[in-house]
């Protein structure tokens, strides 16, 4: 069951047969106050999803050339396409979790049985984990808007994310990527 911050508060209060606590209401107020930052963070990832995923796959191929040689897990093109597709799906579910502030959608829809599926298909988990690590680093850089013209070159694009401290949101996003890494390991 996918729950957002509001649903979680109601379910918790209902389970204890009590109204939502004062601390619960405070957490909801904080969630609302940080809403624009959350939306900007999700937009920063979603707007750059193709780049984030393709850079991650290119990164694992650069680190392991055997992936694109005959018999490798990114050879032929259909396997490479499947790798890119899976990366985009995982990234999409991370953004869903970030938007709702709840990892259950990520766990239920993407991670449940993923390791077993990859094992059955012969997908190397070390490469998958490394791709997620690269996607994590890139996504967090987009959330924090720390990309620079020197690093981006001609492709540089400043997102202009919400101003202010995004450390809590960055830590939350990192935890979702860590969940994916943990599920694959």
TrEMBL record:
Q: What are the protein's GO molecular function terms?
A: hydrolase activity
Primary place of residence? membrane
Q: Does the keyword Hydrolase apply?
A: yes
Q: Name one GO biological process term.
A: photosynthesis
Top-level taxon of origin: Bacteria
Q: Which residues carry this modification: N4-methylasparagine?
A: 73
Q: Which residues bind (2R,3E)-phycocyanobilin?
A: 36, 40, 73, 78, 83-89, 166
Q: Which UniProt keywords apply?
A: Antenna complex, Bile pigment, Chromophore, Electron transport, Hydrolase, Membrane, Photosynthesis, Phycobilisome, Thylakoid, Transport
From the Swiss-Prot or TrEMBL record, state where the protein is found: Cellular thylakoid membrane
**Record's GO cellular component terms:** phycobilisome; plasma membrane-derived thylakoid membrane
The UniProt entry's sequence similarity note says: Belongs to the phycobiliprotein family.
Q: Name one Pfam family in it.
A: Phycobilisome
SUPFAM superfamilies, alphabetized: Globin-like
Per the record, membrane topology reads: Peripheral membrane protein
Q: What is the lineage of its organism?
A: Bacteria, Bacillati, Cyanobacteriota, Cyanophyceae, Nostocales
Which ranges form a coiled coil?
none
Q: What is this protein called?
A: Bleomycin hydrolase
């Amino acid at each position: 069951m996918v729950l957002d911050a509001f649903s979680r508060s109601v379910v918790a209060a209902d389970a204890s047969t009590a109204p939502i606590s004062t601390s619960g209401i405070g957490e909801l107020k904080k969630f609302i106050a940080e809403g624009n930052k959350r939306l900007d963070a999700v937009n920063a990832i979603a707007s750059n999803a193709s780049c984030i995923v393709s850079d991650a796959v290119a990164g694992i191929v650069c680190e392991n050339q055997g992936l694109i040689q005959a018999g490798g897990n990114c050879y032929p093109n259909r396997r490479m396409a499947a790798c890119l597709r899976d990366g985009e799906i995982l990234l999409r579910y991370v953004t869903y979790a970030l938007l709702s502030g709840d990892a259950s959608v990520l766990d239920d829809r993407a991670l449940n049985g993923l390791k077993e599926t990859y094992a059955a298909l012969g997908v190397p988990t070390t490469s998958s984990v490394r791709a997620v690590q690269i996607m994590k680093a890139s996504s967090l850089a987009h959330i924090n808007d720390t990309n620079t013209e020197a690093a981006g070159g001609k492709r540089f694009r400043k997102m202009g994310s919400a101003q202010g401290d995004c450390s809590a949101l960055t830590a939350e996003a990192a935890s979702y990527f860590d969940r994916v890494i943990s599920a694959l390991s």
